[in-house]
Design a protein that fits this description.
Mean pLDDT: 82
Strand order of the largest sheet: 1-2
Number of domains: 1
Number of helices: 2
Strand content: 15-25%
Order of helices and strands: EHEH
Shape: elongated
């Protein structure tokens, strides 16, 4: 089974780490959450 894209619900510590693993594997990843400062940090730290 091939994973084409991923959506992660929750932008807390665990959610950002899970999303980061997929993003670093070059899999399109959406991070859903309400903590804006976490989403900004995730975008800066990712290798897109």
């Amino acid at each position: 089974m091939k994973i084409n894209r991923v959506g992660v619900l929750g932008s807390g510590v665990m959610g950002t780490q899970i999303a980061g693993v997929f993003a670093n594997a070059n899999i399109p990843t959406l991070l859903f959450g309400y903590q804006e400062h976490v989403k900004k940090r995730f975008r800066q730290d990712s290798y897109f």
